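SUBJECT: A protein chain and its fold
Encoding: whole-number codes for local backbone shapes
Chain under study, with its fold:
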Amino acid sequence: MPSPTLLGVVICAAAAVLEGVLVGRGARQRLARLRMPPYSPPFALWLVIGFLFYTMCFVILRHVLSTGLVSPSRVFALVLTVVLLLSNAFWSVLFFRWCDLRASFIAFVPYAVLVAALIILLARSYPLGAILLSIYYIYLMYATRWGYHLWRLNTPNA
């Protein structure tokens, strides 16, 4: 069996490639065409946020995979982390490919529930992972507010 590190890298890299394919070309141009809330980060910072997201997921995956998946909760943590990666890619489809700001805002709700469930699951077995996800959850509150304001700013007669 491949090492947990290699497997974690492969899973995160596959998710990043999938997200890139699903987003398509012109993400920067898509953002540039939108009316942005005044507290919007520049494009380069969005890339840093994405890198940190994948790094966090890698750290969690590596730990979970290194445990040998000996318990149902570890298997569930693995599944939830992979679902988190896939959900992130799906959000990018809503936002970039379909240009549906309303749906991309609404998608934050089940996404936040998924992150909260993973935090709770990891709290006992992997506190570092729970802390990383908690920091991400704080960012997610900002992202949800940003998504709402972006949707409203770019909706006629809003």
